[in-house]
Each structure stands twice: as C-alpha cells, then as structure tokens.
C-alpha cells in the first residue's frame, strides 16, 4: 500500500515525462520490428531470385540425345559418336546417339525439328537439310532449325570395286557413254548430297547413270562390296578402310584440291571435269529453343569439338575437320541452300516447293 501511495503521489509533470519515455520506447520497438520484417521479406526475395537463377543454370539436368538421320557406321554416325564421347565431360551428363533412318535423312531431321525445344534433343544436321526441302522431299526447311555448331566437311569420292574395269574417271565415263543407264551408282538416299554428287557427275560428263538409293552411306558401301551396285559417291572416310584393305578403289575426288587421306587420287578437275561436291555436318536444335540453352549447347559442344580426343578420332577416321560457330554455320547453310537451288535447275531435277 505504501508503494501504491507513492505512485499516486507522483508529480503530474513527472507522469508526463514517464509517459513520453514509454511512448518513445514503444515507437523504437515498432520501427525495429518493421525494419526486421522488411529485411526478412527482402532476404526471402533475394533467396528466391537466386533459386530461379540456379534452376536456369542447371541445364542440362539429364542426358542429351543426338539424333543421327542415317544408319550406324557411316560418316555422319561416326562424327556424332566421336563428338558425343568428347562432350560428356563438358556437360557432365550422358550424351547419347540415336539413329533415325529413312528417306535420305528426312525421317531423322523431321524428328529433330518436331522435338521439344528444351535443348535435350539435338540433331546431327547435314547438307540434306537444304537438298531435301529444295526437292520437296521433306516437311521442313533449314530455317526450322537453330544451328549450334559445324564440325565437319568432306568431298564426295567416286569409288568402285578393286576388280572393276575402270582405273580413271575417263575409263568410267567412256563406259557410261557406251552403256547408258547400265552403271548402278549408289548414294545415301534420294535428294541426299551424294545423290547430287552422282547427278552432277552425269551432267558434267554427259552420261546417264542408274541411281540406287540407300538409307545412308554405310549400306550403300556394303552393297558395293557385295556386287549389287557398281559404284558409290560418298565421302572418302566412308570407303577408306576398304580402299586400304584392297577391296575398293577411288577413281576421283570431287573437290578443288587433292585430300591428305588419298593424296595419290586426282581430283575430277585434274582429270578434265569441273565437278566439286561436298557435304558438311553439324548440330541443330528446334528454332524456338531458349537462347540461354542454345548458348550453353554451343559452348559445351565447341569445347568437345576442340577436345584432343575428338580431333584424334576425326584424324583416325580421316574425316574432314572444320569447326564453325552458330552464326558462321548459319551463313554456310544459307549459301548452300541458294547453290542447291541453282544446281537443281541446271540438272533439270524436279523440285517441288523450290521457293522455300
């Protein structure tokens, strides 16, 4: 009761001072609480933003698949598998190769175009990316793909069995002129670049050849070895092993200069025929693939293409090594597209939807 009496007896001025001090204290506590709440919300937002950024940078979170539009064992398949092996260390995820053959490469590239645009399906695109659409043999155009990287370029090589009666391009041409449509020449499919190579040989030499189509260069070479066809126009790498084994011989190279893997074989131009046809190979994804994913794919596969293991395998396989980034690769594709349109007109080949 004494304590109560002392409170009651406090001076009114002192009461006001005590009240003011209490109010100031309460306001300080309130402001501190608001500040803490704001900082908590801000920290939470920053943490969330970081999680989003981390999520985006997790690509790839699973295996990447490379679709090869041709049969196992051919040049395109060999390039894809060598690149996939090298790429595993740079993506830290499996890089798988799946062969989707048919219609000169149209089946596989169509699957690649229609794949989900998330970067997990990459297509090994080849010169057929421009030849097939120009002939109306594919439901896509080169503009449906976003190029990633070029990794290879090879000329065509006119190749026959070792026991064939021709040892030079001139021998071959003379026989073809005297026997129209009798020489069966195989390629990697109707509308394929190797089909164009054979057709260009016929045009330049004024001969008629019987074209035989296969789902890739490898089965064409197998049929040549078996005697079911008389010649093929495929890349040197796709016949080199059989040339070294004495089973096949190359009559001429369809390039501006001789190649290092077959230095003894003259070019068509050296033998009097102005014919030069080459293929290129590289990677592409559906055109709507996010830019950040495209950049990651280009960076990873560029490192793989410059990896010493990849270069060594390319040299062992005698495949032409040429690396170009996505912008340069796109320019190469566009220029080839225009050149093929002109060649189709010159060859008199039927071309539906040639204005693509």
TrEMBL record:
Keywords: Membrane, Receptor, Transmembrane, Transmembrane helix. The keyword Transmembrane applies. It comes from the Bacteria. The chain crosses the membrane at residues 21-38. The keyword Amino-acid biosynthesis does not apply. CDD domains: PBP2_Bug_TTT (cd07012). InterPro entries: BUG, Bug_dom1. Pfam families: TctC. Belongs to the UPF0065 (bug) family. PANTHER family: BLR1237 PROTEIN, TRICARBOXYLATE-BINDING PROTEIN. This is Tripartite-type tricarboxylate transporter, receptor component TctC. It comes from Geosporobacter subterraneus DSM 17957. The lineage of its organism: Bacteria, Bacillati, Bacillota, Clostridia, Peptostreptococcales.
